[in-house]
Amino acid sequence: MINPGTMTSFAQATEKEAQTLRWLPFVAAIAAVATATPFAWDKSLGTFLFLISLYLPAVALVCVGLCVWAGVERKSPRARWIVISLVVMLTLIGGTFWALPRVKDELRFLAWSYAHNDAQRGFADKDSVMLAWESWGMAGMENNAYLVSNPSDNLAHDGGTSEWLRHVGSSCEIVASKRMRRGIYVVTTYNCPLQ
Fold first, then answer.
1. Could you tell me which residues come within 8 angstroms of residue 144 by beta carbon, excluding any fewer than 6 positions away?
2. In terms of C-beta density within 10 A (0-12 exposed, 13-18 middle, 19 or more buried), how is residue 174 classed?
3. If exposure means fewest CB atoms within 10 Å of the residue's CB, which of 26, 31, 83, 168 is most exposed?
4. Any residues with CB less than 8 A from the CB of 94 and at least 6 apart, and which?
5. Could you give the CA distance from residue 10 to residue 17 in angstroms, rounded to a whole number?
6. CA separation for the pair 56, 41 (Å, rounded)
7. How far apart are the C-alpha atoms of 149 and 131, rounded to whole Å?
8. Which residue from 105, 109, 107 is spatially nearest to 119, judged by alpha carbons?
9. Which residues contact 129 (CB under 8 A, 6 or more apart)?
10. What is the distance between the alpha carbons of residues 155 and 174, in angstroms, rounded to a whole number?
11. CB-based burial of residue 187 (10 Å sphere; 0-12 exposed, 13-18 middle, 19+ buried)?
């Protein structure tokens, strides 16, 4: 005959084991965001090679490890926290790689403009390249991005880029432009440095 006190202590022990893993999703979330952010931020070839050769295989190994652990613990309440951790980790890594590149220039410009307000005023009245913003690619296939001043605020309009290029004395082609605020853009060229 089973003692009711034994059943209660077993249930309490099982609940205590499950509680010991409630921290796991938080650790998975912090680790996912902290490790994915540098890879999502930087476009350089070295970062890309490190991403595909080390980071993604490490993430795959962690996922396999969590799946195996959840399988071993499948009859335990701990399995739920392990599965939640896996889902949180994959969601945050994917979300970071999706969202950060879309807002990176705006975040970087916000920080830069706060620290360089005087520099912005110095370029406010002329078409010019303010600074080299970012570059990525490899020899023969390089993209260069620049923070530029365009007081007429027409780089996003038809004909605006050719007029701006003529004013700065460049024959490069602008392959992308993103407006940061009135009169300031991030423009990207392909295999043609503006400076």
1. 132, 134, 135, 188, 189, 192, 193, 194
2. buried
3. 26
4. none
5. 10
6. 16
7. 10
8. 109
9. 146, 147, 148, 149, 168, 194, 195
10. 10
11. buried
39 Rama sector, left if φ>0, alpha if ψ -120 to 50, beta otherwise: alpha
Angle at alpha carbon of residue 35, lines to 32 and 40, rounded to 5°? 100
The span from the CA of 146 to the CA of 186, in Å, is: 5
Residue identified by tokens 């006190």 is: 5
Tell me how far the alpha carbon of residue 153 is from its chain's centroid.
28
Question: Phi and psi dihedrals of 187, rounded to 5?
Answer: -115, 150
What pLDDT, in 10s, does the model give residues 53-108? 999 999 999 999 999 999 999 998 899 999 999 999 999 999 999 999 999 999 99
pTM of the model as a whole: 0.77
Question: Hey, which bits of the chain come out as E strands?
Answer: 128-138, 141-149, 174-181, 184-190
